[in-house]
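Hey,
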Amino acid sequence: MLLKILTLLGSLGMFLYGMSLMSGGLQKMAGNRLRAFMARMTSNTFKCILTGIVVTAMVQSSTATTLMIVSFVNAGLLALGSAIAVIMGANIGTTVTAWIFALSFGGSSWSLGMIAIPLMFFAFVCISLKKYKNFGEFLMGFALLFLGLTTLKETSTVLLDNDGVRTFLASLSGHGFWSILLFMVAGAVITLMLQSSATATAITMVLVAQGYIPFTMATAMVLGSNLGTTVTSNIAAAVANVSAKRTARAHFLFNLVGVVLALILFKPFLSLVGITVAALGFPNPVTNSFAEADAATKDALIASLPYSVAMLHTVFNVITTLILVWFIPQLEKLVTVMVPSKGEEKETYRLKYIGIGAIAAGDLALNSAKLEVVEFGKLCRRGLGYIRAAINATTRSDFEAADTKLVHYEEITDNIEREFATYLSEVTKNELSPGGMARVREFYRIIGELESLGDSGETIGKIVARAWDHGGQFTDDMKSKLNHMADLVDAAYEAMCQNLATPVIELQDINNADAAEEAINDFRNQLREEHLSNIEKASYPYETGSFYMDLVNCFEKMGDFIINVSQSVLSAKEA
């Protein structure tokens, strides 16, 4: 018996690993193309729903779809209302998995599980050929998934096929509406424990196909798994930003409303599912009792019940979408009330796109990193305002207020670099394409340069502080030229942010950054010559001139860091 239990657990592990491997392979093959597809296909509600269906069906992971949705909402590329529509489509798209599982059960003569082991050979060949490695991972995951599902079905039959288990499950099914709630909770708990609604659906198919539970209770388990999967996404978003929380709440509300409506109209809902299944040529699982059926009908039910569960899953999500699609504005307002904004100041200093729990597989994870590095660049540029304030301060208290901000910004950039590097380290634990690895190296270089810009702000604050300590007040002409140097650095920042935000495939050159860097260097050289002349003329104290030129050199060094960022982006494209 112990061996049977371990075999059951092993088959479950094989199933889960196969699902993960298959989904990861698909995501790595799709890469930026899925993101580009989503960007083009979210101009209206119908396209948003269609996008959710297609993307989720392709990557076999509603989690990956949700991560992309959150990134788009945060970037302002996708409104919250549109994101809710994509989530609706994603819920329909995830039912494709249930249909694939139903095919694995098949009839008495054929099932997808039969081709699982032969498929492993072709998967191994593809993995051995680097060019087709991602496709090989997909095939291997596909094979392991269905081999695990087949083993799970066979092992569960051996373990559960006894009078005691049947009597126990029958007793749980005999309490009317309370039994429905009980099996609903069971479906939600299984989903939470295994972190996979697909696995809960597969287990439900096994139980109902072998006659352990009636179709009514299988319906309750499917409803519960739909709620369970939203709890998982809300837990993942618990430490995330406002947009991620709102998206997760919208997912929860969508499924909650659908489940409540299904419970209120449970009998009509079951009848609709039965009629739909019968229209496909299968026995109606609602009107045909497994226990009371004759041998021929029982065999037909065994073959058709997995398809009935898949149809149930599809009907639930399609009907819920058809109802709630008209209430997207109301859902948007409700989740906004549920998750109010925390204020711009708090949001500014947090990572917005990464670190929200689950990390998407492969190159998809780098899309969030791309959005985050753009925000990092904007944050560094805002620090230039406090540099100006420190230089132009007319009182010591005004300077100290600006200097405190510069020190704070330096701490922020240190923290962002550290968290960003941790994220990239986690991403590289998964298999990345050569292009993906080039992007990771690009991000490492960029965050290092941006962190150095934060250090530069603090350094400038220290130079100005020494000037105050020694009573060396800058002349109006000095301040005017330092402000002009700050203007040139700001222009360089603008070019850098533009290059960071431009998709790598669309970036033609960095002439804008080169021109800004050249302007900074030319003005630095001009000020250096003027300074030597002024020292000879004793136009200002040597010590004051020394602090002044230190600031000029710091600005020039900032220009170097800024141009390095654009050069890193361009080198990633060339790689």
